[in-house]
Amino acid sequence: MSEKGRLIVISGPSGAGKSTVVFKVMEKRNDSCFSTSVTTRKPRPGEVDGREYFFVELDRFREMVENGELLEHAEYVANSYGTPRKYVEQKLDEGMNVLLDIEVQGARQVNANRPDAVKIFILPPSKEELARRLRGRGTDTERAIEARLIRAGQECEEADFYDYVIVNDDADKAAEELDAILTAERCRADNRKACMEKFFN
Predict the structure, then answer these.
(1) What pLDDT, on the 0 to 100 scale, is given for residue 112?
(2) CA-wise closest residue to 179 among 166, 195, 162
(3) Which residues of the chain have pLDDT under 70?
(4) Is 27 contained in some domain?
(5) CATH number of the domain residue 131 falls in
(6) pLDDT for the residue numbered 139
(7) Are β-strands 32-34 and 97-101 bridged in parallel, bridged antiparallel, or unpaired?
């Protein structure tokens, strides 16, 4: 029996640099992948079912929620999104770490369904730096930025729910820390039982 992958939940406020850090790690690891979400929104040009998303009708989505087929789900801009349990478990059985980039509410849902999930919070170095990053994007109004900063404060208050906290004051250093966590989790004794059993059978 080969090693199973780990379910990795990553959260953090908008502007914390989650995507940058995660992609730096994904570029150098071949044992990790992103989960493909289920959504009720229509495919955009070029999107392929099962690649960007699993596209389903609202009735099917509701059925999946009722049947416990989703590890977490939420509504965003009049569309529903969720993490399919079967897809995630298949990838874990194949030995892949599966990464979920979700908000705190979704992380709590995943934790209720999969207490073995590894929860990582990516924290900006300060409120001032977060504000600078958000303004530097040039995509939001000042009012929207203030709202994001308030939301970020609320999210950061829940960081102690997570197993690990990475402070992203430098993306390369933060990526090294995330990479180290993934390696350490793969080396846990409960994940290497098959290796250990070889010495007793």
Answers:
(1) 95
(2) 166
(3) 1-2, 200-201
(4) yes
(5) 3.40.50.300
(6) 81
(7) parallel
The tokens of 186 are what?
Answer: 């793969």
Q: Which residues are CB-neighbours of 61 under 8 A, at least 6 positions away?
A: 38, 40, 73, 80, 82
CB 99 within 8 A of CB 22: yes
Count of structural domains, the chain: 1
117: left (phi over 0), alpha (psi -120 to 50) or beta: beta
For the beta carbon of residue 78, count every other beta carbon within 10 angstroms: 7
Interatomic CA distance for residues 194 and 60, integer angstroms: 38
Q: Is 63 a domain residue?
A: no
Look up the pTM and report it: 0.85
What's the angle, vertex CA 188, arms to CA 183 and CA 193, rounded to 5?
A: 125
pLDDT of amino acid 200? 67
- Tell me what pLDDT residue 1 has: 46
**Ordered strands of the 118-123 beta sheet:** 32-34, 97-101, 7-11, 118-123, 164-167
Place of tokens 């102690």: 160
- The DSSP code for 49 is B
